[in-house]
Each structure stands twice: as C-alpha cells, then as structure tokens.
Amino acid sequence: MPSFPSDPAATAPPSLVLLVEDSPIIAMNTEALLLELEVGGVRTAANVAEALALIEAERFDLAILDLHLGDEDSLPVAERLVALAVPIVFATGFGEDLSPASAWGTAHVLKKPYGFNDLERIVRGA
Predict the structure, then answer these.
(1) Does residue 69 lie in a domain region?
(2) Is 18 within 8 Å of 54 (Cβ atoms)?
(3) Each residue of 78-123: pLDDT tens digit?
(4) Residue (of 117, 88, 120) closest to 3 by Cα position
C-alpha cells in the first residue's frame, strides 16, 4: 500500500484526485471542497466501471473511494489503484463495517458526513 508522507503541512495538494462516490450531492460537495483545497483537478465516478475507465485514462495522485456504491463496493477499484501505487482513502457512513477497508492496509478512512477539515487533513497528507 502506498504510504502518506509524515509531514502533511509540507506537502503540496495532489495534482489529480479520483473521487468514487455514488451520491451526486456528496460527489459535488466533495469536489467543491477538494478544489477549494487547491488540488489540480478532480475526476468523479459513480460506479466501479466508470472508475476503472478513468484509471486507465489518467494518472491519479490520490483516490477517495466510497466503500459502498449501491449494489457494489469499490474494492475492485482499490485493487487497481494499489497496483498503480496510488494512495487510497475510503469514505464510509457511520456504523458501517470498516473491515473491507482495513484489509487494504489503509490508515485513512473518512467517516461520513465529513467536511473541509477532514478533507484538508487527507489532502495535505497525500
């Protein structure tokens, strides 16, 4: 699993973030917050197929994956990103089982609802 730098304050925002989120409102809000944090760009996918297509087309510096995407989960996306050494952050609702995320060895889990400060900690550490 790719690691995050130890000094988040010294890290520039990622150039390109992959956001995999099936809720349009959460996706729009998260994208706006990421752009406010001065990431270079955000590409959004609502499902696994869209996410995998974006991964094949572009190189990402960070990925934020909603763990549950309707009737599928984002683990196939995580598997591909790990192979490409892209740092992953899983986003999940309160009370959800985090064991699938922990299986990937990521220390970064965003619990929904998350806000600007939560994303800032992730982006500055990515």
Answers:
(1) yes
(2) yes
(3) 999 999 999 999 998 855 566 666 666 655 888 889 999 999 998 8
(4) 88
Note down the domain range covering 108.
10-125
Going from the C-alpha of 55 to that of each of 52, 63, 64, 107, the distances in angstroms are 5, 10, 13, 22
- Model pLDDT for residues 23-71, shown as the tens digit of each residue: 999 999 999 999 999 999 999 999 999 999 999 999 999 999 999 899 9
Per the structure block, which two tokens stand in for 110? Answer: 């965003």
The answer to the question of residue 2 being in a domain is: no
- Residue 111 belongs to domain with CATH number: 3.40.50.2300
Give the three-class secondary structure for 39. Answer: coil
CA distance 116 to 60: 21
Residue type (1 letter), 31:
E
Does a structural domain hold residue 24? yes
Total domains in the chain come to 1
* Torsion sign, CA atoms 39, 66, 69, 48: positive
For residues 119 and 50, what is the distance between their CA atoms, to the nearest angstrom? 23
Beta bridge partners of 89: 64
